[in-house]
Amino acid sequence: MVSAPRAHPGVAPACFALVPAAATAGAVLARYGELALVEVERVPVTAWASWTDLDPIRVHGVPRTLPSGCFEPGAGPRCILRFAGPVLPAWRETLATLGWTPRFDCPPSGLCADVGGDLVALRAAFPALRAIAPYEAEDCARAGAGGVAALPATVDAVAFSAEDRARLEDELAAAGLQVVASSRYKLRVRGEAGAVARLRDAVGVKIADPGTLPRTASASLRLAIGAAEAVEATGGGTAAQGDGEGELIAFADTGLGTGATDAPHPDFAGRVQAIHSWPLASGWSAFVRAPGADDGGADRGSGHGTHVAGLAAGDGGMSAGRLVGVAPGARILMQAIEQYVDPLPEWRSRLQPGFYLAGRPLDLRELLEQARAAGAAIHADAWGVEAAGAYTDDSWECDHFLRAHPEMLMIVAAGNAGRDRNRDGTVDAGTLYAPASAKNVLAVGATEGPDAGIGLRGGWAALDPDGTRFPDPAQRGASVSGDAERLALLSSCGPTLDGRIKPDLCAPGTNLAAARSTASSARGWGLANPLPWYQYLGGTSMSTGVMAGAAAVLRQRWRQVLGEAPGGAALKALLIHGARAVHRRDGQGEEDRQRAGFGRLWLAGSLPGPDGPVLIEDRVGVATGERRRIDCTGPGRLRAVLCWYDAPGEALINDLDLVLCDAGGSVLAWGNHPAGAVGSPDRRNTVECIDVALGEGEWMLEVRGVNVPLGLQPWALATSPGVVVRATPAAPGTPTVPADPLPAPRWRVDLPWTAVRGVGARRAIELERTLPGGLATLCAGVPDEDALAFLPAALRAQIRSLAAFLGAPPPAAARLALAHPLHALLSGAPETASTVAWQALAAALSPLLEALDRNVAREVRGERLFR
Fold first, then answer.
1. 174, exposed or middle or buried, with CB in 10 Å at 0-12, 13-18, 19+?
2. Relative to the CA of 858, which of 162, 191, 414, 662 has its CA 20 to 30 Å away?
3. How confident is the model at residue 6 (pLDDT cuts 50, 70, 90)?
4. pTM over the 0.90 mark
């Protein structure tokens, strides 16, 4: 729903900019570290970002314009709030104190919140609040939900809370609607199209859309991805440090060989940690003869899971090492989610008997949590739902999990819906599966396999008998493999519905030979020698297996060099940094990013070593208005890749920028700039890449926190070794946390006025109106007596005394708080810090801690106070 702006007498559209605080004049609506939000007639060149009253916010990915000056929350229970600029984390606490509890973000500058009781107090507390509108039934749908492949006669509903879900189950049952499955905040309800509208009208429903139907995306290989160096040891042979040893890859797939953990296939012998069979999920119970059936972990259908695992981690034992996977030393965890489905007679016209991914749970986080608990840091998902680039519940759940567990990397197939219907030799856009549309996953597209004349030999026509996907005769007769540098015609392409770049990377995916399940009679794209142990298959599923193996080798090598493993975003940045170009099928240059992402896998360019990339991983993160700087010197090529795990939601929520500046501060390139151009700020993607040739001189990379409404945003940067100044921030291959170590900590004080002892909600409203920005405002200096005249004398003196303390540099002991940013200051010392030093830190901060409400002081952590 895109609502048209409504005119309100006396209210004109306004423009707001995020500018350096030192250069501001006039009223400041909010402060963000070094920056301030101000109203402007024209956006200055120094602005980091700007917004107008006519810019839409996104509610579940759907743009919605809230006219300025209209404050109509409706009858409740929830509404949408739009602000003039970025939402500060402290605002959430103030909103909750006033009874307007935030529920989810509506980027770039909005929130969905409970409707509170005092609208006047709300407006008084937030000078930056521009509009309020009801959260209506039309808002309870994700953008593009109508294009998602649906399971017959089912609706998936997401509740605002677990309490809402439990209440809805009772209400729906009383209304005659059958709840066939439930998990956490989610319900699956049996019903046709009319049930969607009924659920969207129900109080407590956040989203309601049709249920989804997932499907699989189904020796020279090592050379094609630059993996030879990963296993070549001095003097020949295979180096133990380059085969994925010590890594556990989890696969959610169709099963593994015979299903026997000790030897499901000889190529996995001794390296299978577990095979978990997931029975027929309860959401299928209304359609099948045997609800809850479980046919075990054997790969009985297509052999898809066995083949994917073989590409990732098969040791090639049955082929004398010829058909070895990318990480033959890695261990395997298989989550077998395929089950045979025997529909009831009344459903057979809409659901044919056969193997489906019917064991996958309603909430994907159950799979991911099982894998993480077993010790896996890499999760491979070679399947998805045809979604035409839409963001779905699956996408949200993946983003939520990865945000909560940043050590994990989730690798997902882009899908096999690629086509060239207009016969231009380029794969058509907009065919991406979900959850490949998630922001934080590594979505993988397919280039051709490296070898021609093998496997499927009928050309692309063999995959499209009726000629609807590949109608061009020249393409129909062309080999499906043979050039690993060009995009495969079957590969699903972006962009996502909100314009993000997906897939992230490509890897070979057609006519690849790997392990075959002997529990299946399927022949894939053809049997491969030696029989019966191998077969050919093709699709982005195969590319996913290749990428999972590469990630295991990469994680192992960096873990050995650093002494600890990089996080998931760091692995993603490293893989993209090492990538090489994907070529257009017509030979006219490189594929654009919306089709092929940031390139094709080239593992050699991602590995540590003298010529390997510099890895900078900031696990503390930046807030709105903060930046980290990395010094560079030319000449040389600079390729820098910034990655971060964003909060779940259809559009970008925590927005960072990667910027290249000259010594004078002029911008030479923005992240994701077009080749040879400066570009412009990216407001969509969680990956930003700068690739330029630097001339002689000094240069500076900046990671900027432009709009970070949800706490601090950690990030990872992989960049070229030859141009980054070795002493700042790190020698090649050395992580630095944070990226640009400051000579001393600086105050952040991300706390609302209610955190001060004795302030309370009503005084906090007055303080926020007078001194917007919470306690961070006090870092700028001691406020005038007149500005605090409405406060009692004792409280006025307390705040002025606190401002005097915060106006001075933090005590030297604050370095310890930065080293342990997530540890409460008044709790016992962390394991790696001495008790005496930790107590000295608390004593040095006593003027601040004693001024805080007792409960706040007990819980406050270094990340809230320092940067």
1. exposed
2. 162
3. very low
4. no
